[in-house]
Specification:
By secondary structure, the chain is mainly α. The protein has one helix spanning 46-85. The radius of gyration is 26 Å and the shape is elongated. This is DNA-directed RNA polymerase II subunit RPB11, variant.
Length: 96
């Protein structure tokens, strides 16, 4: 009865604050928010897990951006070829 709630049983480092929870009743695709759930096995802190997850996300989004730019450049090059300005375009009708 007098035991503290389970969420009160973790230890905080000096100067570390508890995480605040916000309840969102409506999830809408136009809301620019990302929800990340962090759970550890105790071998690292939740903060370390979050930082690691964020670093992985940044790396993945960077790779996605590079792949997108590559595909966009290839598409633009192919479109130029179809309009007669490509490698085999022009006099022979733009055929490859």
């Amino acid at each position: 009865m007098n035991a503290p709630d389970r969420f009160e049983l973790f230890l905080l480092q000096d100067g570390e604050k508890k995480i605040e929870e916000k309840v969102f009743t409506v999830a809408h695709p136009n809301v620019p928010e990302l929800f990340i759930r962090i759970q550890t096995d105790g071998s690292i802190t939740p903060r370390e897990a979050l930082v690691g997850a964020c670093k992985q996300l940044v790396a993945m989004y960077g790779q996605l951006g590079r792949e997108f730019q590559k595909e966009l450049a290839l598409r633009q090059y192919a479109d130029q070829g179809e309009q007669g300005g490509g490698v085999n375009g022009g006099a022979n009708g733009g055929h490859y």
